[in-house]
Amino acid sequence: MHDDTPSVPSMTRPKLPWAGTTIFTVMSTLATQHRALNLGQGFPDFDCDPALQALVTEAMRAAHNQYAPMPGVPALCQRIADKTAALYGHRYEVDTEITVTAGATQAIMASVIALTGAGDEVIVLEPAYDAYLPSIELAGAVAVRVPLDAARDYAVDWDRVRAAITPRTRMLLINFPHNPTGQVLDDADLRALEDIVSSTGIVVLSDEVYEHIVYDGRVHQGIARSPLLAANGVLISSFGKTFHTTGWKVGYVCAPQALTAEIRKVHQFMAFAVSTPMQHAIAAYLADPRPYLDLPAFYQSKRDRFCNALSGSRFRLLPSPGTYFVLADYSALSDEPEDVFARRLIEQHGVAAIPVSAFYREAVDNKVVRFCFAKRDETIDAAADKLSAV
Description:
By secondary structure, the protein is of the alpha/beta class. The chain contains 15 helices and 13 strands.
């Protein structure tokens, strides 16, 4: 008698070095189980503009339901070029330097795989968005982790960045406004980046998905403001954060023609094309700049509402000049490790947060958690009440 049970093939390569289930998923699952207010994962609990939704329906009815061109719908690429030039001064070529991707995460992975390989080193600033290290490792490259200065509210130590550069360094991966810390770059930071690039020739991959969420009168300092950095860099952004549509997964990557040609070679076999009606809808919606120009004031009011409500609590909130996140030091409340404290916050107090240790590859415990305030005012108020009672 034969055993017809299919066999599971044995692993012939090492297991991937990251977990299959992230702590972000774990915390959201716990929040659901305990009916906690979810200030953990970074997405709004309110909907996008009904006018934008109507444009999707209109695009579908106009028969925009088949594959889009691999680089993106031309009308959307044109809008991206116009917006970037108007805001930052550098104009990317529509046909050869802009690619629409399935969200910023896919843009990051396609860019890293296209531009780095075995033996290359990629410098990453920690704490870091959790997709960066897997992208580097899938490319066969090596991540060189440089910590932000936690003692200075997670500022960049450019001397440490320079010291990490070797002849094998191919790329510097940055993310500002920064997730999870909320920090932003200023003009001096751009000059430091220019100095590094001019002396080394490395590529700067700049994740700028929170480009329109910068507060207190600041302006976003991205690589497109610098001719040198634009000529040697890859700019990645997304409409998910800007238009409250994280579930649509429409992002883009802008880069010089030679870099874009390599990125597209990977993109076409990762995703090939991105949702056609969504692209047409966003292109039409971008005709009016007010939704993204008004975004800083919209989110600053939520940041201030949350921070003011917690001003009398035992949490010490760190400055948040950008993104829709704020870090909270809980050392006056507990000596527990960050993941333990975050779980107890859900189970006993009904609010979900993310331990900042989740953004490091190796164990770090600064007694800091991340809260997301991209929420309705009633959610913010209810969460602040619960946190103030901790």
